[in-house]
Amino acid sequence: MAKKYNFYAGPAILPQEVMKKAQEELLDFNGIGLSIMEISHRSKDFESVINAAETKIRTLLGVPENFAVMFLQGGASLQFGMLPMNLLIGKKADYVHTGEWAKKAIKEAKLFGTVNIAGSSEDKNFSYIPENLTFSPDARYVHVTSNETIGGIQFSKFPDTGNVPLIIDMSSDIFSRKIDFKNIGMIYAGAQKNIGPAGVTLVIMRNDLIEACTEGLTTMLSYKTHAKEKSMYNTPPCFAIYIIKLVMEWIEGLGGLAAIEEINEKKAKALYDAIDNSGGYYKGTANVSDRSRMNVTFRLPSEELEEKFINEAKKVGFIGLKGHRSVGGCRASIYNAMGLDGVLALTQFMENFAKENK
Amino acid sequence: MAKKYNFYAGPAILPQEVMKKAQEELLDFNGIGLSIMEISHRSKDFESVINAAETKIRTLLGVPENFAVMFLQGGASLQFGMLPMNLLIGKKADYVHTGEWAKKAIKEAKLFGTVNIAGSSEDKNFSYIPENLTFSPDARYVHVTSNETIGGIQFSKFPDTGNVPLIIDMSSDIFSRKIDFKNIGMIYAGAQKNIGPAGVTLVIMRNDLIEACTEGLTTMLSYKTHAKEKSMYNTPPCFAIYIIKLVMEWIEGLGGLAAIEEINEKKAKALYDAIDNSGGYYKGTANVSDRSRMNVTFRLPSEELEEKFINEAKKVGFIGLKGHRSVGGCRASIYNAMGLDGVLALTQFMENFAKENK
Predict the structure, then answer these.
(1) Domains of chain B by residue range
(2) Between B9, B107, B235, which is nearest A10 by CB?
(3) Closest Cα to residue A320, out of A193, A189, A311?
(4) Known catalytic residue: B193?
(5) Which fold has domain B17-253?
(6) Edge-to-edge strand order for the sheet containing A283-284?
(7) ipTM of the complex
(8) CA distance B79 to B305
(9) How far apart are CA A61 and CA A175, in angstroms?
(10) Which of the listed ranges A302-306, B3-7, B39-43, B324-328 does the model predict with the highest average pLDDT?
């Protein structure tokens, strides 16, 4: 069959090399005669997988030694509640409101403490990243959403929060670019966009914050448990962690985060150029300087043409180009595993479509 | 390589047919040119998988219509806390204490409400299922652990709790036998022993209990959320749910739960017969009438012989026979996917070992 390009906002495609390796090893991991899914999480074979995944994450991302790396479950959506449950009870935190994901994080935080909205782009339908943030001097932490998949906006640079820990939901752009851990207290990310399949959440948290977590929480909801037990308090999502390890090896092979970041810049530039050079046929919806390199959102001259565009694209193998129902239009999600070839194929299609549908 | 038999307490082996099918489809699901791991959970292809998984679970298990079927994350360990958080705050519940898993459930419940220990087998190191339970008239629910993997004991029949909902942790024996839903308010199970890989938890809950859940919980920890959104409030663990669907098809192919139960009875009988007919060389540790059909625990004449037994077994392909560190001895876990052939191969080995090591 013809090659398909998946531009869905997530779960996203995974690198072909990773999928092929997973397929090869699916019935017999490491020559043990069993699948990685079929062995004890306490076996040395699985322990070497989770340890390698952690080591590679630390090396590729440059995680400082005073941070724990945890593999949890429940997605970023569980983190929206678990974070304030652990750090916010009876305290105040600053949240930057940039769209649907930030909104969900804010809603859950309000159940546990006081939330100060340090900045918001709600006035313009979340089409930009707010500057001039108003931080509270007594904030326990500052929370930002690194990339908003619906509005297609992304922090190009994180705010300087001084001594207040910066906590970042990086679900949709982790491992797509280098990170400076200077202000960071914690980052978290559901795996299913850039680093693995759905079913595992990566949490990287500074030790002093872990130590300060609320006492008396139910065991599975305390970061202390997972940091102390190195994600093995109970059976972790073994297969998903194994895939993360393979994805990390794939990133290593490409040349690490600097190389991935360069490729992602090229991909985003190609797509935004196709929009900007279309003589107004395609219109980007995000503020130019805040454009996401992961989710490229754009409109066509009419809703009818958008529908036609999405349908014709699908016929030739470009799937998932429909914008989120809350904003409409079109969206191409171009996470790590989407190659420049896929993006260039799409830009070619866009050019042809514009010519044929003036 | 020689065939391996995995007798680990979990994650356990999966049916070979399931693993082969998963391997075949791993790069191209349903002819769509993408893996089931690489598509949106809102796509019709994944929706048909999760819907089929639910339908098959309902049919095979005979789930009454007034129950919701949910695919959650975090394992039974998260349920130990999530259950009392939803149903026990400020109330009382009865728990039957049968071993390590019941103990963990009790510990978490005490964080939220009053726990009455309705019965316990702690006096004899959890080697039996207590009878003569003392229920509280005002209990919100009665909680039991269907099968204890460490002690190797199992409820052959669940207590009659009258109008009080019975809640059962079936992590280690779900889909191994038929269930009568008469008293049941909820059952839950981590998937990784009998129905799938680690990373998904099956929760089946009566609608009136869902409606009565605590208000104001963080969204992901409320059963109401997952029942209302049909496990799709956020991205579910898609691949693990897909494997559950394949396992359900495998059970259908065998003839359903009655057929599986019969096979499991045969497997357990063969293994316990090998123990009981060894002239005292092997000694079962569980009370005979409470013996588990899933985890067969036994001792040899000395710890030295146990060590030798475990090592020699490993050399010829029987892995995971070491008992849990808290009780020592040996344990053979024989979940659904372990065939009678594997059990008979083990009994043959046991017979030979006993002869050669008098």
Answers:
(1) 17-253, 256-356
(2) B235
(3) A311
(4) yes
(5) Aspartate Aminotransferase; domain 2 (3.40.640)
(6) A283-284, A295-299, A330-333
(7) 0.97
(8) 39
(9) 7
(10) A302-306
Identify the residue whose tokens are 């991302």: A61
Using CA coordinates, name the residue in chain B closest to A243: B37
Q: Is residue A101 annotated as part of the catalytic site, yes or no?
A: yes
Q: Six-digit token pair at B135?
A: 């229920």
CA distance B350 to chain A (A): 22
Q: Give yes or no for a contact between B129 and B290, defined as CB atoms under 8 angstroms apart.
A: yes
Quick one: A25 exposed, middle or buried, by C-beta within 10 A (0-12, 13-18, 19+)? middle
Nearest CA in chain A to B32: A4
A38–B12 CB contact, under 8 Å = yes
- Helix, strand, coil share of chain B (percent; to 5): 40, 20, 40
Calculate mean pLDDT across residues A76-101. Answer: 98
| Separation between Cα atoms, residue B324 and residue B327, nearest integer Å | 6
> In terms of C-beta density within 10 A (0-12 exposed, 13-18 middle, 19 or more buried), how is residue B12 classed?
buried
Residue whose entry in the numeric block shows the structure tokens 């680690």 = B198
Q: Enumerate the β-bridge partners of residue A184.
A: A166
Tell me the per-residue pLDDT of A210-238, one tens digit each, with 9 for 90 and over: 999 999 999 999 999 999 999 999 999 99
CB A28 within 8 A of CB A34: yes
Q: Which two tokens stand for residue A108?
A: 């859950």
CA angle A137, A143, A149 (to 5 degrees): 150
Tokens of A218: 């139910």
Our CA-based measurement puts residue A32 at a distance from the nearest CA of chain B, in whole angstroms, of: 8
CB A28 within 8 A of CB A36: no
Contact B33 A1 (CB under 8 A): yes
A273-287 per-position pLDDT tens digit? 999 999 999 999 999
Q: Which of A46, A108, A172, A220 is the best mutation test for B, with the most CBs of B within 10 A?
A: A220
What is the DSSP code string of A113-146? SEEEEEEE-GGGTT-S---S----TT-S-EEEES
Q: How far is A103 from chain B (nearest CA, A)?
A: 13
Instruction: Look up residue A22 and give its two tokens.
Output: 């997973």
Beta bridge partners of A333: A295
pTM for this predicted structure = 0.97
A204: left (phi over 0), alpha (psi -120 to 50) or beta: beta
Q: In sequence order, what are the residues at sequence separation of 6 or more whose Cβ sits closer than 8 angstroms to the Cβ of residue B173?
A: B146, B147, B154, B193, B194, B292, B293, B294
Six token digits for residue A158 = 């994180």
CATH superfamily to which A256-356 belongs: Aspartate Aminotransferase, domain 1 (3.90.1150.10)
> Helix, strand, coil % (nearest 5) of chain A?
40, 15, 40
- A85 closest CA partner among A183, A223, A228: A223
Q: Give the position of tokens 């429940």.
A: A74
